[in-house]
From TrEMBL:
The keyword Metal-binding does not apply. Coiled coil: none annotated. This is SDR family oxidoreductase. The keyword Oxidoreductase applies. It comes from Larsenimonas suaedae. Belongs to the short-chain dehydrogenases/reductases (SDR) family. Residues 41-227 form the Ketoreductase domain. Gene3D superfamilies: NAD(P)-binding Rossmann-like Domain. It holds the Pfam family adh_short_C2. The lineage of its organism: Bacteria, Pseudomonadati, Pseudomonadota, Gammaproteobacteria, Oceanospirillales.
Amino acid sequence: MVSTPKIHAQKQRLPGLESEMTPIPEVIRDSYRGSGKLEGKIALITGGDSGIGRSTAVHFAREGAHVAFTYLAEEKSDADETVRLIEAEGQKALAIEADLRERATCDAVIQQTLDTFGGLNTLVNNAGTQQINEDMTTLSDEQWKTTFETNVDSLFYMSRAALPHLGEDDTIINNASINAYIGPQSLIDYSATKGAIISFTRALSNQVVGRGVRVNAVAPGPVWTPLQPATIGAYDPEKLEGFGEITPMGRAGQPFELGPCFVFLAALDSSFISGQTLHPNGGTVVNG
C-alpha cells in the first residue's frame, strides 16, 4: 500500500512551483521499470514542468520516448529540473516557454517540436488552471474567460495543430478531472471546462479513430501538485489540511501514480481503447 505524508496548510501564487511544496511530490517510483513501450516515439506534453505533466514526461522517457513540453515563464526552475530528469533517462528533452491561450503560440509549439524531433506521436493536453469561488454571483467574467482559455481553448488549438502530423497508432491524451463528474460547488468554471474536455475527447475520437488515431482522457482525483497550494492554498491555506483524505483510500494521489496511466494510453497496450476516460481518483465511483 502506498503511504503518503500528511499535507498541511501552505500557500503559493499561481502558477505554483513544485520545488516550494511541502512535501515535495513524488514523480516516479524507483521500482518502475521501463520496457520500451514508447521506444523511438516523440511526445509533447503541455504543462510538463511539474506535477502530473512532469511525472508523465519522466515515465515517457523511461519508456524510450523523446519529450517536448511547455511551461510558463514563472516555472523556469521547475522546467529545468524536468529537463534534467528526462535526460537522466537517456532521452532528449525540449522545454518550450509558452502561454497556450493564443492560437499562434500553439501552432508554433507544434512546429518547434516537429523541427526539433522530426515528428510527433503523442500529444498530452495537460496544462490547466483553477481558482476557488464559492459564490457564482461574484465569479468575474475575467476568471471565467481565463479558465476556459487555459483549459479548453489551448486544448483545441494544440489538438488541431497536431492532428495533421499524427498517424496510425498515434494518440492524443487529455487531462480532465474527477470534478467533471462530482461538480464541487467552489469550482464551477473549472468543473465546466473539465466536462467540456470529456465531451471533446469523445467527439474527437469519433472523428479520427477511423484513421488510427486514438483519443482518450484521464480524470484524476485529488493529486498533490503545485496547482493545489497555488489555488486552494492561496484562497485559504487551512483548506489544504489533510488534502485528499476525503477519498475512499483516505489520501491524495502522488504524481507517480498518474504517469503510468498516460503511458498505457500512449502505448499499444491500449490499442482497442479510444474515446474513453481513466479514473485514478483514490476509489471514488463516478459512473463515467
